[in-house]
Amino acid sequence: MPASLPSGELAVVALLADPLRGRLYRLVRRRHPLSRDQAAGEVGISRGLAAFHLDKLVEGGLLRARYQAPPGRPPRVGRLPKVYEPSDLRLGISIPERRYDLVGEILLDAVVEATADEAPLAAATRIAMERGSELGARFRRARGLGRLGPERALTLAAEALESHGYEPHRRDQRTVELRNCPFHSLARRAPEVVCAVNRSLLEGLLRGLGDRRVDAVLAPRPDACCVELRAPAPPRR
């Protein structure tokens, strides 16, 4: 832990050092608003333990809490369920972490491995596709996966990308949006390069998983990843 971090950020790092608390924080960032019961069910712990850690995150300024009636149910007499969502706290540290090492390695390999008649961006996207395919194939082997349908491929791709800082969110049955860009600062400086590399990396990951129907599509959004994953529409009957 860098000694130069401001005291407030040191406190945040310490707060998230607890693995369970970190899992709950990432869960709320992905799916919010989230109640104590929902968080406890997702993580597999008691409601009381979930409430303890969620309230600690509220005290630390990482989450905020409010009371909300469950969707589709009329307000009941008495206290409403407490739900949690990310706060607006801005920190010098990145949560989730950025992965400049990954895009840096791809760009460096592109410089070293580009053929004589290959444009630099073409080399970078080619190598990104290869690197993504390796990541997907490794995940596939570790899980012993067989043939995948598009919906299952979306679920597994989201799971694989969570560990790389993308913050995947299943918007609907056909779409996974990526709420965090692991290459944020570089993408702001050179979006045409970094977004193309990122799209190729994610396309390669899908192919490495064994899927050829889900696509990685450029869909730039402010303060989010420029790519989302889309499955094809079901055939009309």
Count of domain modules: 2
Give the helix/strand class.
alpha+beta
Helicity, in percent? 40-55%
Query: What is the CATH architecture assignment of the largest domain?
Result: 2-Layer Sandwich
Number of helices: 9
Mean pLDDT: 82
The percent range for strand residues is 5-15%
Number of strands: 7
Low-confidence stretches: 1-6
What spatial order of strands do you see in the largest sheet? 4-5-7-6
CATH topology-level name of the largest domain: Muramoyl-pentapeptide Carboxypeptidase, domain 2
Order of helices and strands: HHEHHEEHHHEEHHEE
Shape: globular
Q: Supply Rg.
A: 20 Å
Termini gap: 57 Å
The major β-sheet equals:
4 strands, antiparallel
CATH class designation of the largest domain:
Alpha Beta
Short description:
This protein has 237 residues and is α+β, with helices and mostly antiparallel strands. The chain is 50% helix and 12% strand. The strands form two sheets. The protein has a four-stranded antiparallel beta sheet with strand order 4-5-7-6, covered by helices on one side. A three-stranded antiparallel beta sheet has the order 1-3-2.
